[in-house]
Specification:
The chain is α+β, with helices and mostly antiparallel strands. The protein has two domains: 67 residues, Alpha-Beta Plaits, CATH 3.30.70.240; 32 residues, no CATH class. Helix content is 26%, strand content 27%. It has three helices and six strands. The strands form two sheets. A four-stranded antiparallel beta sheet has the order 2-3-1-4. It has a two-stranded antiparallel sheet with strand order 5-6. Strand 2 and strand 3 form a beta hairpin. The radius of gyration is 18 Å and the shape is flat.
Length: 129
C-alpha cells in the first residue's frame, strides 16, 4: 500500500524567513530595520528578523533593501527556513540578575523548538531587550 504524500504548501503561503544584515551607516541600518518591520517581520536581534514571506514578497523585500542601501557598504541575507528545521531550533536567553524581570528567579532560559508555530518574542516595540 502506498502512503499519502505530504501536503505541499500553497504557492501563496510563505516560509519563515530569516533576514540578517550588516550595514555600517546608522541611518541606513535604521531604514533597513523599518522595512523589515513593514513586511511584518519580528526582530530577533538588532540586525536579525524573522517572519513569513512567500517567494514574491522575499524578492520584493530584497529589492527594497537594495534601494535603501544604495551605494553604502552592506551585506544582507534572506534565508527561508522550512517548518521541520524551524521545529528543531533552540533558543537560550540570559539576562542580568539585577534586571527587574529576573529578580528572584533564574537569570537564564533554555527553550527547545516548538510545534505550536511561532514562538518569537519581542518587547512590543519590535526590538530585543
Amino acid at each position: 500500500m502506498i502512503g499519502r504524500l505530504p501536503a505541499l504548501r500553497d504557492e501563496a503561503d510563505g516560509l519563515e524567513t530569516l533576514v540578517m544584515y550588516d550595514v555600517e551607516c546608522d541611518r541606513v541600518r535604521s531604514k533597513v530595520a523599518d522595512a523589515c518591520l513593514d513586511y511584518g517581520l519580528q526582530r530577533l536581534q538588532y540586525s536579525v528578523f524573522i517572519g513569513e514571506l512567500n517567494n514574491n514578497r522575499a524578492e520584493e523585500l530584497m529589492r527594497r533593501l537594495k534601494r535603501i542601501v544604495g551605494k553604502q557598504q552592506a551585506v544582507i541575507h534572506l534565508f527561508p527556513v522550512c517548518d521541520k528545521d524551524l521545529k528543531l531550533s533552540r533558543e537560550w536567553v540570559q539576562r542580568p540578575e539585577s534586571s527587574a524581570e529576573t529578580r528572584g528567579s533564574a537569570a537564564s532560559e533554555d527553550r527547545g523548538g516548538s510545534s505550536s508555530g511561532r514562538r518569537w518574542r519581542t518587547n512590543g516595540a519590535g526590538r530585543s531587550p
